[in-house]
Design goal:
heterodimer; A: 267 residues; mainly alpha; 62% helix; B: alpha/beta; 11 strands
Chain lengths: 267, 311
């Protein structure tokens, strides 16, 4: 019984050790990959004159995501794929650890013997690691060279600053000035009418009203009162209508005649 | 308890000994052995003359088990199977009722052409298979272990037969389809039995106690959780394929699939169950437990084709 308990504990320890080794190797792979990502972004930041600490953001993100994915995949099924002579046995042993059975014990002993033959190298993808390390070395040399020679492709902070300045310097669009410009231009006389008519508004008007021929009561005339209007007054309804003459489909030959007509009315 | 390696040696010896009488039919022999190791019953379906009866007789000889044969006919009564009370006269002139056990009281029972017996007789046999006991009058008689029923069915000549309802055929662990031997195998049969009249003298290679130990060993073979789930998943899928299957398999099929997979692992000398064991046992476990839809049958899909689609 004691021997059985010892055997079970040994297999349990062996399984934990195996899984730990696999996770450690997977973590090392993740770290190497993340370092490559870091160096790539560091190189880009050097070439674009961006502060180097921004490179840590993709590095940390990649490290977390890659590690989470790798740890999720580090199950016995993954180990069995890399070690075919233990196919379906590791899982069986792991799921039956609490069973005290001669057959299970036999299986545990078999698996323990086979686990002794596992070489950690089977979990390493040598081609991939060699490639990554080579890339790390190349990137490191590139970074050293670029930093020493002070090479840059373009200055991103300056570019952003220029862009911001250009946006700030754009003139604000002033409606009144635009109308005044159009008004003072003689070219649009046909559209806006005779300039002298608009200038009439600046002159003082002398009007004589006949009391008998008007309905205006002079006694009721008083100075305009100051009225406080609501600042946030909003009209209930805004409606625009066009003159009836514009609703007509005026033939092209008559366009000039209609314009002339309105000019003469305004005169 | 016996070790797996020793168990494998015994099983291999049994196969070797059976091979001296039965030519080929490895699949049938293997599946019958699986049923035996699972302590369950099997239904054999095949044309006449394919060594079904010979297999069971050979098994009984090499395992030193009591063998009996029930030839099912429409006039067979339940008491013809279970046994009945007969009047016995003692030396003193007194008359007593004595129970005369029927052919069911054996270790290996061959129920030939089970679909020819009436439903009432079929029920008596099936009840004995399930309960492993027989009730006659007020007395209950336990059946001796190991107890194994191999029933046979002929896929042709269905006139005048009483097909086993699906609810009853569920009691058989496996339904084994027996096929014709290959040309070489048939030639070997002719060489062995046509040219020289020889009856191979069989040795007892597996004793009753050893067989019981093997059955216990089968159940103790460990299985991984995901493989167990795979087995249950296959069976539950039969209940969710309304386009192909009208009635799916019961939980008895899940149980049977896992146990038969363990038996197959033992047969191959393995101390663990693999996914292939489950996959290979799916067909004999499920083919008599599912009812395909009319649409599936209309498209010429057999039960085996439907099961393969699920796998």
């Amino acid at each position: 019984m004691e021997q059985k308990k010892r055997s079970i504990k040994t297999i349990e320890k062996a399984l934990i050790e195996l899984k730990t080794n696999v996770i450690m190797m997977a973590a090392s792979n993740s770290l190497i990959d993340s370092l490559v990502v870091f160096l790539i972004f560091f190189l880009c930041s050097l070439l674009m004159k961006i502060p180097y600490y921004y490179s840590f953001i993709p590095f940390i993100l990649y490290l977390f995501i890659h590690s989470w994915y790798v740890f999720k995949e580090a199950r016995y099924e993954y180990i069995e794929k890399r070690v075919p002579f233990l196919k379906e046995q590791l899982r069986t042993v792991a799921d039956n650890l609490d069973r005290d059975d001669p057959v299970v014990q036999e299986l545990n002993e078999d698996v323990l013997k086979k686990m002794g033959m596992i070489n950690n190298a089977v979990f390493l993808k040598f081609g991939q690691i060699t490639g990554r390390i080579t890339l790390l070395v190349i990137l490191s040399f590139l970074i050293i060279f670029i930093a020493a020679a002070n090479i840059s492709l373009f200055n991103v902070p300056d570019l952003l600053k220029d862009l911001k300045d250009k946006i700030d310097q754009l003139p604000e669009y002033n409606v009144q000035e635009q109308i005044l410009y159009l008004n003072e231009s003689e070219e649009n006389k046909d559209l806006f009418g005779n300039k002298s008519i608009a200038e009439l508004g600046y002159q003082e008007l002398q009007i004589t009203l006949s009391p008998t021929q008007t309905e205006i009561d002079i006694n009721k005339i008083k100075d305009p009162e100051e009225n406080t209007f609501e600042s946030n007054y909003k009209p209930k309804e805004i409606k625009a209508t066009s003159d009836v003459s514009y609703q007509e489909n005026i033939p092209e030959d008559y366009h000039l005649i209609v314009k002339d007509y309105f000019n003469r009315i305004s005169k | 308890m016996m070790k797996i390696a020793d168990a494998k040696k015994l099983i291999d010896k049994s196969f070797e000994e059976m091979g001296r009488v039965i030519v080929g039919q490895e699949e049938m022999v293997g599946e019958v052995m699986i049923a035996l190791l699972s302590d369950a019953h099997a239904l054999l379906e095949g044309y006449p003359g394919l060594a079904k009866t010979l297999l069971v007789k050979t098994l009984a000889e090499i395992m030193d088990l009591k063998f009996s044969r029930i030839q099912n006919t429409p006039d067979l009564m339940p008491s013809d199977i279970t046994g009945t009370y007969i009047i016995e006269e003692t030396t003193g002139g007194k008359r007593n009722f004595k129970f005369q056990p029927g052919p069911i009281f054996a270790n290996l029972v061959l129920a030939d052409e089970i679909n020819r017996a009436t439903p009432k007789t079929q029920s008596a046999l099936l009840e004995a298979m399930q309960e492993r006991q027989v009730t006659v009058g007020n007395s209950t008689y336990q059946l001796e272990r190991p107890f194994f029923v191999l029933a046979t069915q002929n896929p042709i000549e269905q006139e005048g037969t009483y097909p086993l309802p699906e609810a009853q055929s569920d009691r058989f662990l496996l339904k084994i389809n027996v096929s014709y031997p290959t040309f070489q195998e048939e030639l070997e049969i002719v060489n062995r039995y046509a040219e020289e009249e020889q009856k191979a003298a069989l040795k007892v290679v597996l004793k009753k106690a050893e067989l019981i130990q093997l059955q216990q060993l089968t159940r103790s073979i460990p299985i991984a959780n995901d493989i167990k789930k795979y087995a249950v998943d296959i069976v539950t899928k039969t209940r969710n394929k309304a386009d192909l299957i009208e009635y799916g398999a019961s939980p008895r099929a899940s149980l049977g699939l896992v146990i038969s997979a363990k038996a197959r692992a033992l047969l191959n000398g393995r101390k663990y169950v693999s996914k292939d064991d489950v996959k290979n046992m799916a067909l004999p476990i499920l083919r008599h437990r599912i009812v395909p839809t009319f649409e599936a049958e209309r498209t010429n899909l057999t039960v085996d084709d439907v099961i393969k689609k699920i796998l």
